[in-house]
Amino acid sequence: MKKIPCASARNVFRSSALSAAVASALLLSYSGIASSATMTVKGVVAGSYFMPPVNSDNPSSAHASSTMASVYQSVKVCVDLNDNAACDSGEPFVMTKSDGSFLLASKTSGPLAAEISTASTNGGHVVTQRNVFRVAADQIAAVTTSPLVPANIAVTPLSTEAVRMMEDGEGNFYTVRQNLASRLGVTTDQVLSDPNTIADPVAKSAVLEESVILTNRFGFAAKMADRGDVASVPAAQQTAMNIEGIPRYDNIFIIMLENKATSSIKGSVYAPKINGWLNAGNQFVSYFATGNPSEPNYTALGGADDFGITDDNQWNCGATGANALQDLVIPTNSVPGLGSSPFTNPCNQATNHNIVGKSNLFNALTSNGMTWRTYSESMNPGQDFRTDSVGDPGVYALDNVYPPGTLGNNASQIGNPALQLPLPASLYKTKHHPGMAYQNVRSAVEFSTSNRTLGGGQWDAVLLSSTKYTPPANYNIDQFSSDLQSGDVGHLNFLVPDQCDDMHGITLQGKVNGVGSNVTASDCTGSANITRGDNYTDNVIKKIQASPLWNNPNKRVAIVIMFDEGTATAGFNSCCGWNSDKASTPVVVNPLKQNPDGSFSPDTSIVGYQSGNRGHGESVFGVLTNQPNAPKGIVDSDYYSHFSFVRTLQDMFGLSDPAAPGSYMNRSKYTESFIAANILNLPEFQGSADTHFDSVRPMNHAYVFPAGTTHKQSTDVTGSPQVGPDATQTNLWSLK
Amino acid sequence: MCRILLRAPRSSPLMNILMVLGLLGGAAFDANALSPTAQVGKMLFFDTSLSASGKMSCATCHDPAHHYAPANSLAVQLGGPNLNQPGTRAVPSLNYKDYTPPYADLADNPDGVSAPGPGGGFTQDGRAPTLAAQTQIPLLSFNEMANAGMADVVNKIQNASYAGLFQQIFGSTVFGDVPTAFASAQAALQAYQLEDTSFHPYTSKFDLYDSNKIGGDLTASEARGLAVFMDPNRGNCFACHYSGAGANGSVALFTDFSYEAIGVPRNTTDIPANRLVNGLPVSFDMGICSRPDHPRPASAQYCGMFKTPTLRNVATRSVFFHNGQIKSLKDALRFYNTRDTNPELWYPTVNGVVQKFNDLPAMYRNNIDTQVPLDGRAAGSQPPMSDQDLADLEAFLNTLTDGYQPPQ
């Protein structure tokens, strides 16, 4: 098979362009089509037309995203004899009609290319980004019964993906068609057919969802090729699946844990299972938080900035003027059904906690036809997602009991099986929701259906018995497990355990057999809390790994184990887009806004911004993937932060364009070159002793530490700092 | 040594741009314009007429040329109408007070880990909740600025050159109401201290180091000193002089605002109230439990506890602890290291018996902190830090002095 390693794709395609004859000979020989055969194709250029959601708290103007099966008009379809994804002069071509159809006859058979231009329309809508769809010669051969009968072919994003997969060395046409069908859970007939003709609604929906994603990816490929970033469209179509070296994944599950330095987890007898997973998978070992305490870190994970938030206060705090709440209903206890809500309004504070009009992962995903979920544990059934959970002395769970040898090598049992622990307040906290601070996320049409429950909690069995709220009908305490079975998870999934299971810890007390004085629970504080989180994390990972999704190798699925922040007590608090300026006055640190001419200038409208993004040390960061051939047991010691991770996720889901810094949200655009270009407006980076340390990059392991250089580390990491490059430069996200 | 971790060659244009701009950066962003309120605060701060002596302003003891600490090496400063009354306690610096929260018996520790305990507040016992409230103490104390009362202070402001500006800001009738006018002056003094960068400049070598700036490479001795500072078994300094990320975006304040009783020896020479009568103490300064709102016996558990000061600019001080009994940084470090192993170095010996903890009545000595290096180890045992450790630690503490200029 012809395999195009992405890192060298540019060179491969440059040389093939220089020796087109050799290249086409290779291509034709591998596709197994004799060039002398005649070919007639009667087909359609088809795909999807996507309308992004309109987010508003006004029900009359809000609507969800929608996708329609579509056909493309005025598209140039040709026999792409040299397989360069362009209709060159001399290659037989036709234009599609108003119904997207075409009839193309050629004396010479070959693959098809469909050049969708800005003169084309898609479902009647003007196309804004040029695109190229393709069909493998083998796909045509597979449906050709006789040279005299035209082959029925749909030129679609998915037929293009099949070609790309073949060129990526994933197998012959029949293999990649099967793999693509398996990825989507549809038949091999359905996967390459005109989506307009798929009768089964589930299959049609799956094909359309993939079609939207691929249309965006291949449109970006055409853009890169047209700009000259990549030498050809075929090469660009590979690059578009590997933006900044980050492969496309279908689903990622991010397990959020709380407040532990690397040194508190790595090698800890209290966290044997997480250590096992870290060692079995891949690890980023210089991963820095960007804020302190929780809320700024989660907010940064949602959109690569904390906007000056330096506390855990409610999302309505300081929300005045341009930042005034747009939520149609403020979830206070005066709202019918929310009598137990702990939410207070208003909340007076100088620093605004309601981020209005800023980009974030959630809106970016849904605007590009993808989905997100936050799965949160131990919410009160019937509560509003925008409020913290409340306690209920009326229901209780029993203390967790640890037999000898199950908690830090304990010699005797820890925990009291007769200790009754009433449901405590604040197991679920909005400060731990990466989208909560963003008005456009709370206002999103999918907000209420994308916040779901995560099971496995100590009080799961009694949550429905609580009288604090009225549980909705058919309330599912563990939607996550159901979604893993049905496949209805998001592309991006934040898994947020409650404050006992995430190692945060709260005051948790009860009475033995319900009487006597208060006794503290075994495992919601101190070192025992680490073991509790260790067990919970292990259970979640095993649950994911037992799912049909994980076990479908044609789905690319990753699990991340991470912490919101460390505990660094001295030295480097953060890196990679951080704010190293400690001063409170004069105010000089501001976010940047992009001007109509493309330049950037300070946005001085954010009160308190100066105090944000200062970081809080280092924590472990593990990556597991379901790809059997993916590298394992490797370590990337380059510097990354939450901003780097958000940049990585933008690459992973094809949300941004590396050639356009402004397409990366907020501080995730602060690469070394961007900072250099805007240094006058970024005083926090002036006088840098190490510009690599200070700047953002995707987590792609591209940087090689020069020999002899001593790595910077915080006091959250014990032991001597590494000197020189890593043992391997393999990308931890690699699929193979 | 770490500054060349660059993909680009050292002489790359990018690096040059960053380096050059780094050297010029301060001037480019000097936007330290004070609000009108803070401008009045500045005038109040330097106004010697706001004292009975007519010679003492805030800046007399809180000298901006000495990081807002005294310029001399007196254990306590002299004040009062004739500038001959010794102060009650050593004068603290006014540096880095902008993040200090009000006092609470159960304050959250900014390290996010330690259990809540007494913390926050101004003065060494926390009795003033804000910088503004704190100003009343020196303005009205008999042995400091010694004004007769709020009306006296307000009257002097009314006769000051900036009285018109004061009225512009706080209202033309502000002098008609003494409490309002006094509170306005307090607010102005606070605004000045919060707004003027010189009160919290973050221009030490350590700041260059932990902000990843050019010139911040620690020497071998300084780096070892940082390790001693952070080592729970040697200096363990960071346990109270917390240098990590704290509340409201604060970073590296070198205090967690907490209170500890560490048994500083009694200063019987410099502080009149501490003088012995017939060889015996008459009264004790016991920190929190000497406050009117924390009377004994209800607050007995707080007796002997004083606030942890920031260590920023500590190397420029010449008196240490609440009573100024220790007169050099070297000795302060030695006290921590040998209070328990060699108490005779620090406390008087009477009839052959070392009077350890001689400034805290025996009934309150259970309050004495027991963390390393003051872990109560036996006299004659090995101190937690070696002489080399002490030298290195001192070198590190010298990196906390503001106004550092890297060698060119």
Describe this structure in words.
The complex is a heterodimer of chains A (736) and B (408). By secondary structure, chain A is an alpha/beta fold. Chain A has two domains: 6-240, no CATH class; 251-694, no CATH class. In chain A, strands 13, 14, 15, 18, 19, 22, 25, 26 and 27 form a nine-stranded mixed sheet that branches. With 408 residues, chain B is mainly alpha-helical. Chain B folds into two domains: 36-89 and 124-199, Cytochrome c-like domain (Cytochrome Bc1 Complex, Chain D, domain 2), CATH 1.10.760.10; 201-408, Cytochrome c-like domain (Cytochrome Bc1 Complex, Chain D, domain 2, Orthogonal Bundle), CATH 1.10.760. Helices cover 28% and strands 6% of the residues of chain B. Chain B has twelve helices and ten strands. Chain B has a two-stranded antiparallel sheet with strand order 1-2. A two-stranded antiparallel ribbon of chain B has the order 3-4. In chain B, a hairpin with a 2-residue loop joins strand 9 (349-350) and strand 10 (353-354). In chain B, helix 6 (150-158) packs across helix 8. The radius of gyration of chain B is 23 Å and the shape is globular. In chain B, 47% of the residues are buried. Mean pLDDT of chain B is 92; it is low at 1-31. Chains A and B meet through helix 19 and helix 20 of A and helix 1, helix 9 and helix 10 of B.
